[in-house]
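Predict the 3D structure for this chain.
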Amino acid sequence: MRRALARLFDVAGALGASCVVAIFLLMIVAGVGRQVNLRVSGINDVVAWLCAAAAFLAMAHAFRHGDFVRVTLVLEWVPPRVRRWMDAVCLAIATAAVGYLTYWATAFTWESYEFAEVATGLVAIPIWIPQSTFVVGCWLLMLAVLDELVTVLQGGKPGYQRAVEERHAAGDFSSEV
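Done. Predicted structure below.
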């Protein structure tokens, strides 16, 4: 089950990275297009949607790999048993917060779908289509946080902690800067 989740988060991270590549390509097309008098106005709308998609699709992957900003100053100085308790409390709070976000993102996007809302920019498409990447990203992050909470409650070490320790063991302290 955890391997399937890890694979799902990796695929979502790859999709997020693909969105960044698409943003790069569209910005090049827009820059060149303006120079040769091509109509490129709608590209800005697509780039904005891709920015949101890149951020939200990659969240679960970043969380699992210890790439979220976490303040570990206190955690590094407490005994392992206290750290596990503090991790569990923080993950429970994160589960509630991400669950709240996920619920409302899903409700908001469903409402856009029900009312056949259309984007107000130059690209007139149903707005639920770009909003769906927000919802998918929220659900994936919810799964990642919940999985880490279960891991900690079962006495295991969270994936983000293992990832940071592996990077440190390899001599990579770039995330500490």
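The radius of gyration is 20 Å.
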